[in-house]
Specification:
By secondary structure, the protein is of the alpha/beta class. Helix content is 23%, strand content 24%. Among the domains are: 40 residues; 185 residues, Rossmann fold (3-Layer(aba) Sandwich), CATH 3.40.50.
Length: 335
């Protein structure tokens, strides 16, 4: 008896199988890694990874196609992280555009984007790890006449008053280190000493933005806001901008919830009466109001600029956020 023939389905339905090249590790030293992935259009994505928090990119940038010598140019004005877009937007809309401080450099995509777009006079970056600074310069093009990099412990440099030796007041103070992501928040970061020095660095109308990715939205955030507002020379309001719960059903240590805490003069957070912004006053949509209104007129062509599911809510003060949005929109500088 002849064996019965068995026919297996065509798994690929006669379609050509296209294999994408695996990401290439360009450097791997002292717990830091730089990885690059080629894209179908000839461009590439490059990012930096820390082995201690491998689920998060420290920096991710897009590069153009290679030139005749094989060199790829970094697209400085295409910020990939929503938190970086918000921080750059805050710097762009500061009433007095002077110097900006960024705590935590990574690949320095954020400071380079602000400089490339003309959003800051000078940018001071405080980065702890020498290898990160080297990688930022070597692989991410982090070199600019108005970029000043300080290799130091960011918290100590602020709290000790060392940053206070700068020859000008700051328009914006950006904290891009995930201090708030871990159960034990650094004691110095929620100390009166740190926040008194921080406010002393700023112009009277200056603002602070803190990357609060993975932060405990109750105890840790409340402690930070309480100390930061208590140390300010005048009344300060706090605005938390983060994704809605519906955007991601489950936030985990591998996929932590993103967010940016904005601290600024309280009068700029008061409720506004104008109808020029299409937003629910009780739950304003920062990206819908700002990015949707001004994209195409800003210098920076941020990738995936419109994030309609990111909302803003007040923290600590029972105030409306719409006035703050009107303040930002009214002070946007075009180039």
């Amino acid at each position: 008896m002849a064996a019965e023939e068995v026919f297996f389905p065509d798994l690929f339905e006669e379609s050509a199988v296209r294999l994408a090249p695996a990401p290439e590790t360009l450097a791997n030293e002292h717990g830091w890694k730089v990885v690059e992935e080629s894209l179908p259009d000839g461009c590439a994505m490059r990012w930096m990874v820390c082995e201690e928090s491998f689920s998060l990119d420290q920096t991710r940038v897009k590069l153009g196609p290679p030139d005749a010598s094989g060199h790829r140019a970094v697209h400085f004005t295409q910020l990939r992280a929503t938190s970086h877009q918000l921080m750059a937007l805050l710097a762009a809309l500061a009433p007095s555009m002077s110097a900006v401080v960024v705590l935590g450099g990574g690949g320095m995509a954020l400071p380079m984007a602000m400089l490339a777009a003309g959003y800051a006079g000078r940018v001071h970056v405080v980065e702890l790890h020498p290898k990160v600074i080297e990688f930022a310069q070597r692989f991410f093009g982090a070199e600019h006449p108005r970029l000043i990099v300080h290799q130091a412990d960011a918290l100590e440099m602020v709290a000790s008053g060392e940053l206070g030796k700068l020859d000008c007041k700051l328009s914006t103070f950006l904290v891009d280190v995930d201090f708030m992501r871990f159960p034990e928040v650094p004691e110095l970061f929620i100390s009166h000493r740190f926040w008194r020095e921080t406010w002393a660095l700023l112009c009277p109308d200056g603002a602070v933005a803190v990357n609060v990715i993975g932060c405990d939205r109750s105890a840790s955030l409340h402690s930070l806001v309480t100390v930061a507002t208590a140390c300010a020379p005048g009344p300060v309001g706090a605005l938390l901008v983060e994704p809605e719960d519906a955007e991601h059903r489950t936030w985990t240590p591998m996929m932590p919830r993103a967010g940016v805490l904005i601290l600024g003069p309280r009068e700029q957070l008061q409720f506004g009466t104008g109808d020029d912004l299409e937003a629910d006053p009780a739950q304003p949509n920062v990206y819908g109001c700002l990015a949707g209104r001004f994209v195409g007129r800003c210098a920076a062509e941020f990738e995936d600029w419109h994030r309609g599911s990111w909302k803003a809510r007040m923290v600590g003060w029972q105030l409306k956020a719409r006035g703050f949005l009107r303040f930002l929109g009214g002070n946007l500088r075009f180039v």
